[in-house]
Amino acid sequence: MGRGDETRAMERRWREAGLWRDISLEQAFDTTAEASPDAQLIIHSAEHPVRARLADIRAEGLRLAGALKSLGVQAGDPVAVQLPNWLETAQLYQGIARLGAVIMPVVPIYGEHELTHILNDSRAAVLVIPAQWRKTDYVARVRRLGPTPHLKAIVVVGEAPEGMVGWDAFTAAGFDPGPPPAIDPGDVGFMIYTSGTTAAPKGVRHSHNGLLAEFWQTYMSGGGTVRRLSPFPAGHVAGANSMIGHAVIGQTTVLFDHWDPKAAVGLLQAEQITHLSGTPYHYMSLMDAAEASQADLSSLTDCGGGGATVPQSMVARAEGMGVHFYRRYGSSEHPTVTRGASTDSLVQRMTTDGPAALGCEIRIVDDAGDDLPIGYEGEVATRGPEMFLGYTDEALNAEAFLPGRWYRTGDIGRLDREGLLTITDRKKDIIIRGGENISSREVEDLMLRLPGVVEAAAVAMPDERLGEKVCVFLRMAPGAGLGLEEVDRAFRDFGVARQKTPERLVILDEFPRTASGKVQKVTLRRQLAAEPV
Predict the structure, then answer these.
(1) What is the bridge-based pairing of β-strands 302-305 and 275-278?
(2) Each residue of 108-140: pLDDT tens digit?
């Protein structure tokens, strides 16, 4: 069987399983709004709390499609939405999909440094931002952007200065855009940027079929009434999918514009939440809040998570509270690779990341891309119906895929004889802080801009609450010194996301190196693991 025949056979299997239905996001949104008009979207926010019906979100979204059209947005154009989980975000997703444009969430923490790259790399037609949220003045930040020649307009939720479009004026320009254009479900419908091994965020392109497969695969599992709570922020693939999932599946969904574990416990009880997902950070803080208030968590029937190393002690603690947490594995490129269940044995849930999700396949390969025996550790390669099409940077795709459309994840793991995957290490040089990926190389490049820094190596520092924090090992010029306060000021001036600011500095005379001279980061990580901060 040739590669083309193999791909066609694979896609045929996905269609037969109901994972590829050859419809667009717009068609899915329209069908669900008709079938489940009263599905509630509940957003906890200090500034923009809301409880809204799906039918009302859909109606306003169609008007916003006209407003976007008046700004020049056409089918295939990415629309960058750098908003928190707000009602306006859900409405915009509806409007973007109606035009056949590309939904492109952007993490709210990204500063002008990352945002300029994202807007230019994606060729986004429109950027939507809040005027201000929490302590960030987004208008001031956007004024510091570098040249963005493809950007047609900046829409501001709130008051806008000259040269930008305020939300009131934007919504006033809304109208029924007419019937949606013909959309190929194989075309790009969703794009998200993730920090990985490269210094700049990478554009991850998903087709309509691929993104929707994520919901057909995971959100339809289980019987009875499903009521979901997600702590993930907008811009994160899991956060965006939580909001889009409400529009695709039509189940009661609780989101947060900023994670608040105490409020989450109250909402979990009041709304009788059945399904919960999150990183270890989210679960740990939720359990702390639940114990403090002696809350009853018995409504929960499905509790999965990942996004960072899951301590066995956390799974055991959850079990003691009646929460049968299971690990799962995925990424922005392939959102759900494995999926366990709360009914799996405690040992399986505590020590493995579970079996391949419906339609997904997993291989463990060596550096040459050849399969390794069962039980051997190697790089995890995956493929499945919801896997991405590729990166915006074609140069990255040659390294990302093996023949047969197998995605090289950059993570190290092993498979057992039952087909259970366990992630054991990370080949990618990234730091996962509170579920957010941080490029070590980007941090290092920024550190090398500081006076006196000769060499920098950024690595993950274990942290009980966030999973990992940024630690930088440094070699300094003779007589030079550097403190965290100076680094903090410099990173603020650079305009990068605050999470990337180093939280520990270690100055060395020499770095541990391989025979070829490469810094042995595994040695540095082991040093931190042996001496946690």
Answers:
(1) parallel
(2) 989 999 999 999 999 999 999 999 999 999 999
Q: Residue 270, class by beta-carbon neighbours within 10 Å (0-12 exposed, 13-18 middle, 19+ buried)?
A: exposed
Q: Contact, 61 vs 94, CB < 8 A?
A: yes
Residues 93-110: tens digit of each pLDDT? 999 999 999 999 999 989
pTM, to two decimals: 0.87
Work out whether the CA dihedral 336, 338, 341, 342 comes out positive or negative.
negative
Beta strands in 158-307 (DSSP E): 165-166, 188-194, 202-207, 227-229, 252-256, 275-278, 302-305
Dihedral over Cα of 66, 71, 75, 79: its sign: negative
Q: Which residues contact 464 (CB under 8 A, 6 or more apart)?
A: 284
Domains of the chain and CATH, by start? 54-208 (3.40.50.980), 430-530 (3.30.300.30)
Phi-psi region of 272 (alpha: psi -120 to 50; beta: other; left: phi over 0): left
> In the numeric block, which tokens belong to residue 330?
């995925």
